[in-house]
Amino acid sequence: MLPPKTVPTELTTLIRDLQEALGAENVLHLPEDLAVYEYDATIERARPDVVVFPATSEDVAAAVRIAVQHDVPVVPRGSGTGLSGGAVPILGGVLIVLTRMNRILEIDADNRVAVVQPGVINLHLQGALEPFGLLYAPDPSSQRVCTIGGNIANNSGGPHTLAHGSTVNHVLAIEVVLPDGRVVRLGSRVPDAPGIDLRGLLVGSEGTLGIVTEATLRLVRKSPATRTLLAIFESVADASEAVSTVIRRGVIPVAMEMLDQEIIRIVEPRINAGYPLDAGAVLLIEVEGVADGVAADSAVVEQACRDTGAREVRSADEAAERERLWEGRKAAIGAIGGAAPAFYLLDGVVPRTKLPQVMTRVQELCREYGFSCANVFHAGDGNLHPNIMFDPTVPGATERVLELGGAIMRACVDAGGSITGEHGIGLEKRSYMEWVFSEADLEAMRAVREAFGPSDRFNPCKMLPGGHGCASGHAAELDAHLAAGAYV
Amino acid sequence: MTTIRFTGPDIPSAEDLANCIHCGFCLPSCPTYVATGQELESPRGRLHLISGIRDGRIEGTPRALEHLDLCLQCRACETACPSAVPYGRIMEDARAAIMANEPAEQPPAWRLRRLALRHVLARPRRLRLAMAGARLYQRSGLQHFVRGPLAPLLPSALRRLEAAAPVLRGRPFRQTGTLASPPAPKARVAMLLGCLHGEMYPDMHRATVTALEHARCEVVAPPAQVCCGALHAHAGDAETARALARRNIDAFERAGVEAVVVNAAGCGAAMKEYSRLLRHDPNWSQRAEAFSTRVKDALEFVAEQDFAHDLGPVDRTVTLQDACHLAHAQGIRTAPRAILGAIPGVTLREMANSDRCCGSAGLYSAVQPQMSAHVLEPKMASIAATGATTVCTANPGCTLQLETGARRHEVDAEVRHVIEVLAESIEAGRSR
User: Fold this and answer.
1) What is the CATH number of the domain that holds B42?
2) pLDDT tens track for A190-226
3) Is B38 on the interface with A (CB under 8 A)?
């Protein structure tokens, strides 16, 4: 037998207090159990000291109050599908996993409102809304697993953000546990809530200001008609030109997604979505509305694509056919995992009209650094997702990939864009914040954060550069690594 | 038992593990994750544990091994995985790499399981003796006594296990040699009889022979065949699995057939993977390769033949449980539906999540009764919601589990292999 592990007394009492408050079965603390809570969908790794599974807002508040008493950090986690290290407990502490709070509390179809707990999976909500002919518009590619709580924390987007806007436009009200354990309700179920819009502040704050324990969501009606078009181009530059041309001609499709040749060749053999293997790029465009409007809009889209060099434009009206076209897009990022030993997924955003220029620059940079790169992204929003593929066992490869990632982000910023379109800042892009914000801007954000609670309590070292304790030990090591971002 | 390391020839490979990018798309497909909401009982979590134990970053404590043991090996995560992580074989390798340790180091429950598998399942004579005892138990009235007056005195685990025992119907199927020889056969095929299958569900074998004969196939059952070794492989006894694979390859090669037809999805999936199981064995790798390509699930094979002629009506409203090792491991989903669709009188009502595991999972229902029952519950609810009076399966383990479920949850539905319903239709056609 191994000698029993010695646990520092403070940790023992923290664990005991949490067990008393939430029930022993809802608290994990053994090292081998904590090991699977050290990651999200990035390469960041850090183990929490203890993991709790609350069932109610009161449980969350109790766990937070205990963490305050013991002066340890608190990090919220949903399904752990984040792409910026946001749910990785970089300074340890209490990890609050919200997957058990997964009930849809109410669907009010007439007022187009749903009330849900934060652990509800995005796609499960969509499924429950289906019979009412309604949907919740934000549709991240990870929607079959990501939670509404995580979507709110990251202000998630998705292909349909182009027409409907990102999560912040679809959250009417939230119940939040603040860093001192108080429970508050922000926003309102009816439009135009009076007072300061703290709801808007909380959405996208990446768990640094509060933990959402209930959300009242705005629903939209499913359009009576939907058409998905697949436009096939010889090059990424042509496809990029088409995106701007479509919008210039007055049509805003609900989604415009681009896949370049590299990604088509990875995803098509596995998914059989119907993308031609010899295409330079394809655009997946979705048009919604009443049937006549859809027909008219698709005609404009099709002409715009042909005028910018599309060699073929296919269209699908049936749900099964449309789903098949989308399946390739939704599975694309994951499919890269099977095609390369490792890849670095970037998330940047540029003004739509700069797409042709920036995409050309991305390809140049990849060639310069000697890596192949697969692109699949929300072209309509100018939201790029270059995936740099590499072999981390080659000495120096990881460092060069990180450098390349930084150079691509820089190119986005230089073109008037920004460092994240939807994945959030998390740990990954803290240091890029200085590229897009002045010290005064960042100070204003820090002041807001401090107003909610001490910066080392809720999700420390996330989103804003600097921070107490973030520049020492493990975090500092990572920071050096992260100077150029790191999702591998 | 202390902490354990992976050892032996089957340590999960770094390449297989590297395919996982931690995206988490597998989570909602995993029955144990859905049941617990915990990463520990998810495919991504288990892969992380395996990878950590492999590289010495995580200790292989009894607790860590429990998480690996709680996996159903249903492989639904493989269907959900966009990166094509070969989860099933990683888990089999991990279990084999645990069981390659000295006996004293092995988790006691795993060791016990291996003993039972090695010394009963892999030994036809002992197995038959055990089954004869079970039959006697059911028919002598002893079972009545156990379920009646004795029940309150038994521990609940034993009671549950007893309640899950199948009703042994009719004579066991132990026939070998030529099982059917229609005039001018279109193909010559061999049938796997399996270890428990012919003892527990002899009618499935009879129905398979009927269906194959109807499709004008000559059917043989090589007498030297043995248990397929699937349960051994799943439980980490790669050594016995390889020994059984060699014996089967030899037995079926001698039969000189075009296809080896298997009516148990779990066995078929394992036999299609003999090529991988024996890949390091220079004397056997090529033979195993050739053998595996000839293995066909019975439904897969029949659906490719001319089977839809002269079928008579069968009045059944059915729902289909996609056997995990048919849908996820072998990628076969249309064949059972095509066959059911061709039978006059059969109405198919699809259940929600038909490819979600029922909790049978080989030995799982016996070794993890609690989780197995937990997974079975929503399955029975989905079945009941269809209003179907027949549940169709493609695997004896699922049949056993769903029969138990129907009794426990009072769902008024018979459980039948798809091929049994087809055989009924063939019989009905003949008697017209």
Assistant:
1) 1.10.1060.10
2) 988 889 999 999 999 999 999 999 999 999 999 999 9
3) yes
Task: Judge whether B5 lies within some domain.
Answer: no
Fold annotation for A225-333: Alpha-Beta Plaits (3.30.70)
Mean per-residue pLDDT of chain A: 91
Domain contains B274:
yes
pLDDT single digits (tens) B175-191 = 999 999 999 999 999 99
Q: Which are the contacts of A352, defined by CB distance < 8 A and separation ≥ 6?
A: A243, A244, A247, A379, A380, A381, A382
Within a domain: residue B170? no
**pLDDT tens, A346-356?**
999 999 999 99
CB contact under 8 A, B48 and A39: yes
Mark whether B316 and B425 lie in a shared domain: yes
Which is higher by pLDDT, A55 or A483?
A55
Q: What topology is assigned to A9-97 in CATH?
A: 3.30.43
Query: Which residues of A lie closer than 8 Å to B, measured between beta carbons?
Result: 1-2, 28, 30-33, 35-37, 39-42, 53, 79-81, 97, 99-100, 102, 119, 121, 123, 142, 144-146, 270, 331-338, 341-343
| Residue B166 Cα, gap to closest chain A Cα (Å) | 34
Q: How many CB pairs under 8 A join A and B?
A: 103
Number of domains in chain B: 4
Q: Which CATH number fits domain A104-221: 3.90.1150.10, 1.10.260.40, 2.40.370.10, 3.30.465.10?
A: 3.30.465.10
By the 8 A CB rule, do A225 and A288 touch?
Answer: yes
A336 pLDDT exceeds 90? no
Complex-level ipTM: 0.90
* pTM of the predicted model as reported, rounded to 2 decimal places: 0.91
Sign, CA torsion A78/A84/A88/A94: negative
Neighbours of B275 (CB within 10 A): 20
Facing residue for B25 by CB, picked from A39, A144, A342:
A144
Q: What is the DSSP track for A48-90?
A: -SEEE--SSHHHHHHHHHHHHHHT--EEEESSS--SSSTTS-T
Task: Look at residue B114 and tell me if it is in a domain.
Answer: no
Q: Do B226 and B274 have their domain in common?
A: yes
Question: What residues does each domain of chain A span?
Answer: 9-97, 104-221, 225-333
